[in-house]
Write a sequence for this structure.
């Protein structure tokens, strides 16, 4: 049976019968197919308001196919369900994207609870208990749903780690980054979730690492480094008995390989390193260098991306480029100087204007004085003001910098 469905009510598993425009005018190379999350995004982004579905070949809509979309954030709505349906619900209502300032509130709670959950997983692994990939799925779905609502919120919040439990927080951070990168690379739903599970479990082998090495507040000796390097093999071995995919196993084993063959444990080169492991390598290093540790200060996100791009032979260049595109040229939380002479922190970036993000000005370089914070959408200024430099926060002694983007309230310019 053919039904016309509003774009806002589409969900993965529906079968697209036809679009309301010519083939040349829509973003697909074919006219009829089973819809995925990414297809639905493309349909909504391209301005198509309704499509015709074939309910004999895919899912139908429940009642009124032209009705209003459900608010997924309304706890009383059917969208407040959990489990497999959560992503479906999120997918059909994800555009327009939730503002990063709103998603950050949720992301902070999620990051905390997910890190606690990972602490338990590591503790159980340390005691020799088997890890269950299936039991990780609700957590991965929650993380993926946050990334779908806004890719900059959780990936930015996850940079702010406290020193206790770094390994667990790092696992959650890499899960969020892997999920966001998988979506940028247009992996299908299954691929996005697999990347998320792989992120959560990539360092599971550290559960077996001697605590003196794992928690050493300084540079490892040559002998200690050899011990630390075992964690990728140990993790792979521990996951053999877990119900996880081959891709998750490959990330555990190969996330320290380098495309020039100088990584470990096997010194694989280029495409011999599985795709998910090449993605894992990028996400793992980015999160490590942008995190504060007892023995080193954190790198600014832009500085991290620039440095990583300059490390010849370490990463797959295509994947690194996609990763930079995922976070934006000016990641949320970046400190920038405007042509007008103000210092500002990046709050959010539009998908079509990566050079003109939304920022919050708070300091005048001309008067060398703080100013009342103002939120400015540089895109709307159409060149009247623009970013002229990325600044190093350490040069400015700004202990409250993170509060400026974590608490996104303030007057709009
Ligand atoms: Fe690792």
């Amino acid at each position: 049976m053919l039904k016309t469905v509003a774009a806002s009510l589409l969900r993965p598993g529906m079968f697209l019968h036809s679009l309301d425009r010519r083939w040349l005018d829509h973003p697909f190379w074919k006219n009829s197919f089973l819809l995925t999350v990414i297809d639905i995004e493309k349909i909504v982004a391209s301005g198509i308001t309704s499509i015709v579905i074939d309910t004999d070949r895919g899912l139908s809509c429940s009642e009124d196919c032209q009705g209003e979309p459900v608010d997924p954030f309304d706890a009383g709505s059917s969208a407040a369900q959990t489990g497999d349906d959560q992503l479906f619900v999120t997918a059909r209502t994800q555009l327009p994207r939730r503002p990063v300032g709103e998603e950050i509130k949720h992301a902070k709670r999620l990051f905390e609870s997910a890190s606690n959950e990972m602490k338990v997983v590591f503790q159980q692994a340390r005691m020799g208990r088997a890890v269950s990939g299936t039991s990780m799925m609700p957590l991965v779905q929650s993380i993926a749903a946050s990334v779908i609502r806004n890719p900059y919120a959780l990936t930015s919040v996850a940079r702010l780690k406290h020193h206790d439990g770094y390994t667990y927080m790092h696992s959650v951070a890499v899960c969020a980054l892997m999920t966001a990168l998988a979506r940028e690379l247009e992996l299908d739903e299954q691929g996005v979730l697999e990347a998320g599970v792989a992120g959560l479990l990539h360092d599971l082998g550290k559960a077996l690492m001697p605590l003196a090495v794992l928690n050493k507040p300084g540079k490892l000796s040559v002998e200690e480094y050899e011990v630390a390097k075992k964690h990728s093999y140990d993790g792979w071995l521990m996951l053999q008995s877990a119900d996880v995919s081959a891709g998750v196993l490959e990330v555990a084993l190969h996330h320290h390989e380098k495309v020039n063959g100088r990584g470990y444990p096997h010194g694989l080169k280029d495409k011999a390193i599985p795709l998910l492991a090449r993605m894992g390598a990028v996400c793992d290093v980015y999160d490590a260098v942008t995190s504060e540790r007892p023995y080193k200060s954190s790198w600014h996100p832009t500085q991290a991306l620039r440095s990583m791009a300059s490390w010849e032979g370490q990463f797959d260049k295509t994947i690194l480029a996609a990763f930079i595109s995922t976070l934006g040229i000016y990641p949320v939380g970046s400190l920038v100087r405007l042509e007008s002479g103000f210092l500002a922190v990046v709050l959010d970036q539009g998908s079509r204007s990566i050079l003109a993000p939304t920022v919050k000005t708070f300091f005048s370089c001309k008067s060398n004085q703080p100013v009342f914070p103002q939120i400015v959408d540089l895109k709307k200024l159409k060149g009247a003001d623009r970013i002229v430099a990325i600044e190093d926060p350490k040069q400015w002694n700004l202990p409250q910098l993170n509060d400026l983007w974590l608490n996104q309230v303030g007057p709009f310019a």
